[in-house]
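Quick log. Single chain, no ligands specified.
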Amino acid sequence: MNIVKIYHHELLKYKGKHKGETCYIFGSGPSFKNFKKQEEGVFIGCNHIIKNDEMKNNIRYYFFGHGYLEYKNNKSIYGNHYKEVNNLGNHIEKFCMVSRNNNLRVHKFSPKEVLKLKDINALPCDINCEKINLDLESNSFLNHSIVFPATQFALYSGFSKIYLVGCDCHSDYVNDNYFWNHSNGSKKPNYDNNLIEWWKKMYQFKNKYYLDCEIININPSGLKELMDKDIYFNE
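-> predicted structure:
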């Protein structure tokens, strides 16, 4: 089914909605553990950030991947994610990237599967691996990482200041590099160069189309000195 044609027009209600406001985008990297709020702002959460109770109770927008719909016995392919998402209140506005398009496969969900999202106040959204689009009401979001659609949404919604939290670009998340299972030590992280390159493109996109927006990294790891400003502090 054509997700863009059927559902993306609903994104128009967010276009410029938060002009001049501040937001925080939360990834699940280990640097999230040292987060301290800098000022009031809208919380935008991604994927497994809802394992943290503060985030689960305070996010306004939530972005998650198509794995939510790939489940068996009430358990998604990403562990308990299916149950965790269903337990979020409908007051949280949700966006699910339901298509997966890359060189390995193209996965399109059935209309019945996609409509499951409407029951939890989630908007089905399409993604691509090649381009950062401007008019999201008629084009797909960028794939590669769930924080990219969240960042596009923040720009599209008019936020003038975006804080990035836990967006560490580690390539070995599955091996102990999420915020909830990461042990602080001397091990040097492996970075995903593909993600870093796409962040550079996202920054260029921001500077071309959203000159009034500032992106600030809180305790950056892989994205050090790649956005407008870095802020460091420890626990």
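The first strand starts at residue 22 and ends at 26.
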